[in-house]
Amino acid sequence: MKSSELLDKVESMLAEYPICQYGFLKSDEIVFSEKVRYICKTECDRYGKSWSCPPAVGEVAQCREHCLSFVYALVFTTLAEVTDIADMQETLATRFQHEAVVKELGGKLRELGEEYFALSSESCAICETCAYPKSCRHREYMLPCIESQGILVTDAAEKCGIEYFYDSNTVTWYGIIFFHRKTGR
Fold it and tell me: Do residues 19 and 77 make contact, with C-beta atoms less than 8 angstroms apart?
């Protein structure tokens, strides 16, 4: 299938989902940064406690290489309404609908015969307590966090013309799905 046909098919399937904004980038347009990983390490309480987060996901260079093994990156958002975005419990409770969209889009890509690598906005929360560092109990369902890969999500959003803040009652969830495996890798 030609690249333009593939992108058209992916774009038409997006209409089936509650996606607010989206854009396509070539994977090599995505910015990877050790600074993002530093923020994970110094500011996130999931660092070193989840298979979907560093250091379990590998070094930024390894993550970048894996992401760049695909031609395209679909960058998209879903929105959720909350009473107060500062209420983390209420905000995080809305993420499961977003992650369902990310997983369903991956399934649609698989139906098109495409390999993909999907990332979501938060650390995996399938299990109440992650098995890390023991074997992951649900690796096939786990969605790594975008930032865990060292990806500067604000840059990707800006390149796609995606706004990243609405108001104090709207949660913006991001997803990035890398797809269309490069040949010869």
Answer: yes
The two counts, helices (H) then strands (E), for the chain are: 6, 4
Burial class (CB in 10 A: 0-12, 13-18, 19+), 181: middle
The CB density around residue 59, as the number of other CB atoms within 10 Å, is 13
Q: Are 101 and 17 in contact (CB under 8 A)?
A: yes
pLDDT in tens, 106-147: 999 999 999 999 999 888 888 889 999 999 999 888 899 999
* Secondary-structure breakdown of the chain: helix, strand, coil percentages, each rounded to the nearest 5: 35, 20, 45
Strand partners, 145: 120
Size of the chain, expressed as the number of residues it contains: 185
- Give the separation between CA 39 and CA 154, rounded to whole angstroms: 14
- What pLDDT digit, counting tens, does each position of 137-172 carry? 998 888 999 999 999 999 999 999 998 778 889 999
Angstrom distance (rounded) from CA 83 to CA 90: 8
Phi/psi at 34 (5° precision): -65, -25
Token duo for residue 25: 């980038």
pTM of the entire structure?
0.94
